[in-house]
Amino acid sequence: MSDLPIKFETNPYHKCILSDRKNLELTGVKQIDSFDSHEFLLETSQGWCIIQGKELTLDKLDTDRGEVIIKGLIDTIQYLNNKQTGDREGFLRRLFQ
After folding, report:
1. Which of 17, 60, 75, 80 has the most CB atoms at less than 10 Å from its CB?
2. What CATH number does the domain containing 47 carry?
3. CA gap 77, 16 in Å, rounded
4. How far is the C-alpha of 80 from the C-alpha of 91, rounded, in Å?
5. Does residue 1 belong to any structural domain of this protein?
6. pTM surpassing 0.90?
7. How many domains does the chain have?
8. Is residue 58 part of a domain?
9. What is the spatial distance between Cα 58 and Cα 72, in angstroms, rounded to a whole number?
10. 2-35 pLDDT per residue, tens
11. Angle at 74 between CA 36 and CA 49, to 5 degrees
C-alpha cells in the first residue's frame, strides 16, 4: 500500500464490536498505519491496536467519522500500552523476531 499511513478525523470515543470472529467494527480510529491479509495496525483514540487473523480485508473506511470495518477470521485484538511511536516500533520488532 503506497498511501499508508491513512490519517483521518475522528471522534474521541472508541468502540470495538466483534461479531462471530468474522466482522470487526471500530469507531474512534485516527489512522491506519499498515495492513495486509494477516494484520492491521491502527491508531485509535484509546491507543494503538493490532488486529491479526486470516484473510483480513478492509470492508468499510469512513474517514470523516473514524469508522472502519474489517472482515475475515479475527484471531487477535491487542492494544498497546503506550501510543508513542518508539514503543510501538519496539513492540513490533520484538513481535517479528
Report:
1. 80
2. 2.60.40.2000
3. 10
4. 8
5. no
6. no
7. 1
8. yes
9. 9
10. 456 766 665 678 999 999 999 999 999 999 999 9
11. 65
